[in-house]
Amino acid sequence: MDIYIEGLTKVIKKKQILSDVTLSISGVYGLLGPNGAGKTTLMKILAGLLEFSAGRVLLGEELISTGTRVKRTDHIGYLPQDFMIYPELKMYEVLEHIAILQGETPTSCQSKIKDVVEQVNLSEHINKKMRELSGGMRRRVGIAQLLLRKPSVLIFDEPTAGLDIRERVRFRNLLKQLGKRHTVIISSHIVEDIEFLCTKIGIIENGRVLFEGEPEELKKKAAHCTYEINVSFAELDEIMATKEVVQMSEEPSHVVVRVLSDKPIGQRVSPRLMDGYLALLKEAAPLE
Ligand SMILES: Nc1ncnc2c1ncn2[C@@H]1O[C@H](COP(=O)(O)OP(=O)(O)OP(=O)(O)O)[C@@H](O)[C@H]1O
């Protein structure tokens, strides 16, 4: 189900953390923004964990916020950055405990637990203690406990942060699967993950929406200014100091530097999502 956020504002100690945020969230939705942009605050507000100062939130056509808070509902599941509970309990016991808190009995929740554990590909580890699981596995248990409530919207704050590359790929694939059945909101600094997963993107900076649209639209922001230049190792420092460098890759004899430039330089190349994102941030607050 889609989420509509209208004019959401959050003020803490006279500081505007979110300013008149209006977003239309559907599919697998990526929330991008620099550190301190307000992403976590927005997600916690959607999950009903934080109050806001003004605005409203709708789930489909239903208003799910009262004056200053989104009502806690089983429709929305929020996975915080760290999910570590009951380290000495087995995964099954943790999920059983949560299901019982939700009104199930040890018998009635058995098949539900088996089902959600299967969905997050952890069936073979179901009898391991939480402390024996890797960080990525624990996060998958976090998703399994959310799925027990059958939410239609899943919110993930930095879901792949701190995971090693194999766990990250596995986790990304799981999020993609979940996106087929749920509206998924993901915040991440890893633009590659957003590019792989998201069908729509919202960018916030300093609590304000800079962009909302499809990934292709964002890429277009850098269509006329993305270049690659080959530079010697000796020239690298100067390029770094004078150009908007997006990426570098080292070759045996030189370095290929990807830059954003208003003036033609080197060879123009097709923009990627990262280029569009940085071009947008540059447009909003030019460095030079
Ligand atoms: N309880 C609070 N009191 C004062 N300021 C706060 C509080 N919570 C958040 N902030 C400020 O609000 C801003 C937005 O924080 P938030 O954590 O939502 O950003 P973010 O986009 O999730 O950042 P990051 O990517 O670094 O996690 C930051 O400047 C932060 O310092």
UniProtKB/TrEMBL annotation:
User: Which residue range or ranges hold the ABC transporter domain?
Assistant: 3-231
The record's comment on protein family reads: Belongs to the ABC transporter superfamily.
What is this protein's record name?
ABC transporter domain-containing protein
MF annotations from Gene Ontology: ATP binding; ATP hydrolysis activity
Matching entries from Pfam families are given as: ABC_tran (PF00005)
Q: Which domain of life is it from?
A: Bacteria
The UniProt entry, under PROSITE patterns, shows: ABC_TRANSPORTER_1 (PS00211), ABC_TRANSPORTER_2 (PS50893)
The taxonomic lineage of its organism, from the top, reads: Bacteria, Bacillati, Bacillota, Bacilli, Bacillales
| Coiled-coil residues | none
Which UniProt keyword terms apply here?
ATP-binding, Nucleotide-binding, Transport
Q: Which SMART domains match?
A: AAA (SM00382)
